[in-house]
Amino acid sequence: MAFTHLRELVELAQSRGVKISRVMLDVEMDQSGATENEIFDKMSYQFDVMEEAVRKGTNEPVQSRSGITGGDGYRMYEYVKKGRSFIDGAALSAMAYALSVSEVNSAMGRIVATPTAGSAGILPGVLVSVLDSGRYKREDIVMSLMTAAAIGLVIANSASISGAAGGCQAEVGSATAMAAGALVELADGTPEQVTHAVGLALKNSLGLVCDPVAGLVEIPCIVRNGLHSITALAAADMALAGVRSIIPPDEVIAAMYRIGNELPLSLRETGIGGLAGTPTGKAIRERVFGRASGTDVPTPTAGVRACQTRAVGVRDTSMPEDHTAKTKAELGETHKLDGTQQKTREGQTTV
Amino acid sequence: MKYNGMFEIIGPVMVGPSSSHTAGALRIGQIARQLLGIEPEYVTFQLFGSFAETYQGHGTDLALIAGVLGLTTDDDDVRRADELAVERGLEYQFTKGSGGQYHPNTVAINISGGDRAVRLIASSLGGGKAEVQELEGLPLRFSAEIPTLILYHQDRNGFLAKVSQLLDNAGYNIARLALERWRRGGDAITVCEVDGPLKSDICEVMRSSIPGLKELRVLDAGF
């Protein structure tokens, strides 16, 4: 990769007098061997999928597969239309869109991971609302996704974009930073301003833990996508106004990485601590999966029980603890999924 | 460098709900399928860390099975992969593992079909990216993001020289290369990543002209 820090990205753009999206596009051509048009068309397709998910969740209420969340994107969109909101309607529609995409995601619908599925609402949210404003051309918005990709690559390679590794700050935080940077470039901000937007947005996401209720990408993921789309818009405006991130953006990313490493396991996508560990969070888990798990202290027995209730493929669950090569013959008789077990599975995932 | 391309960050296009637990898990399943090289009949998944704690909510189990069945990340059928497995005669088993110094989203897979069996340990790094950590117990790391050759062979003088010579003659650039063996002169596995799409004729050439080559698998990034 031609760049590993935002600082290098800015230097590359400045020395050539081009935007960050152009630097990213050239690097991608070099790495993949694909032509400029092929890469642009693929990115344009990704934006089509994003827009499709936005419209799906605002035209009608989308319910998650578990049934515990849904319809908030539609609810917000209808509210925006009334025109009596505290914040500007365009900003609020970005939020409605972000909620919608996250709801489509939790319904196992089609989305684009930006950078992850858990944070897939933010970029489409702000960029489709910007498209709706009519102030920017679709091609320019597609190019701004390349700016977002460049920022995401720096964060992914020098920190993390995995909630299990770095907490929610690594997912929603990264997406917010990427969206803020993309918006600044779209508004003709300088490459340096782009990185300050990243620094500002990421600072406001530091420490965000990954504590999904019942381990589902719903509570609080959906709401966080919605609210952080507003953060992205605000950070972009701050950077365009000339506000700087006094802690250099690369150092903010490094701080995010360190914070992620220091987070306890219970707050890193295990569905154990934080909101997942509240009485209501636990009750929801029990309601969805029909059993009490995700306790404060994960015990081997809880794990064994989980495997027994969930061993849909076979009756014999006495898999050896150590990972050793076992062929079908060595494992002995196995049993195919039958109708009864099928029903159990459905019962577990339906409220 | 963990992430190399733009579409690892803006992408993949996938069915939800989690890039690491659904899309990344599916890719691991796909890699296992391609490593086996024939239709799988039986597979066990041992889940570690966050995979073990939250797999049901994220559909990690469905995604792993979907990948083993050869589905893509944006296929609507991912959500009914368990039914598809029954239809296609694939038996599977999930267990929970503990210990091991792995990435939080890790799965150990034993997959078999016909007279072949493969075991691997792989992690989902986030954003849908997958990485194999161990193959047959050997510390071989690869992501299958670009065309990857897996060569099962005997450890002997000149093996790598022959591989690189054939690839060079055919116009391929080697992007990454790793060889691990059980003992000197014994069985070995080489992982070789190349730039550009691989044509099938190079595989035939390699099979027929590399002494000591026992098996050759191609991981095609275009899944």
From TrEMBL, chain A:
One of its GO terms (biological process) is gluconeogenesis. Pathway: Carbohydrate biosynthesis; gluconeogenesis. Its cofactor is [4Fe-4S] cluster. Keywords: 4Fe-4S, Gluconeogenesis, Iron, Iron-sulfur, Lyase, Metal-binding. Residues 315-351 are annotated as: Disordered. It catalyses: L-serine = pyruvate + NH4(+). Its EC number is 4.3.1.17. Residues 16-276 form the Serine dehydratase-like alpha subunit domain. It holds the Pfam family SDH_alpha. One of its GO terms (molecular function) is 4 iron, 4 sulfur cluster binding. InterPro entries: Fe-S_L-Ser, Ser_deHydtase-like_asu, Ser_deHydtase_asu. Residues 318-351 have a biased composition (Basic and acidic residues). Coiled coil: none annotated. Belongs to the iron-sulfur dependent L-serine dehydratase family. NCBIfam families: sda_alpha. This is L-serine dehydratase. The gene is sdaAA.
UniProtKB/TrEMBL annotation, chain B:
Gene3D superfamilies: 3.30.70.260, D-3-phosphoglycerate dehydrogenase, domain 3. It catalyses: L-serine = pyruvate + NH4(+). Residues 148-223 form the ACT domain. It comes from Alicyclobacillus mengziensis. Pathway: Carbohydrate biosynthesis; gluconeogenesis. It comes from the Bacteria. The keyword ATP-binding does not apply. Belongs to the iron-sulfur dependent L-serine dehydratase family. Pfam families: SDH_beta. InterPro entries: ACT-like_dom_sf, ACT_dom, ASB_dom_sf, Fe-S_L-Ser, Fe-S_L-Ser_bsu, Ser_deHydtase_bsu. This is L-serine deaminase. GO terms for biological process: gluconeogenesis. Its cofactor is [4Fe-4S] cluster. GO terms for molecular function: 4 iron, 4 sulfur cluster binding; L-serine ammonia-lyase activity; metal ion binding. PROSITE patterns: ACT (PS51671). Keywords: 4Fe-4S, Gluconeogenesis, Iron, Iron-sulfur, Lyase, Metal-binding.
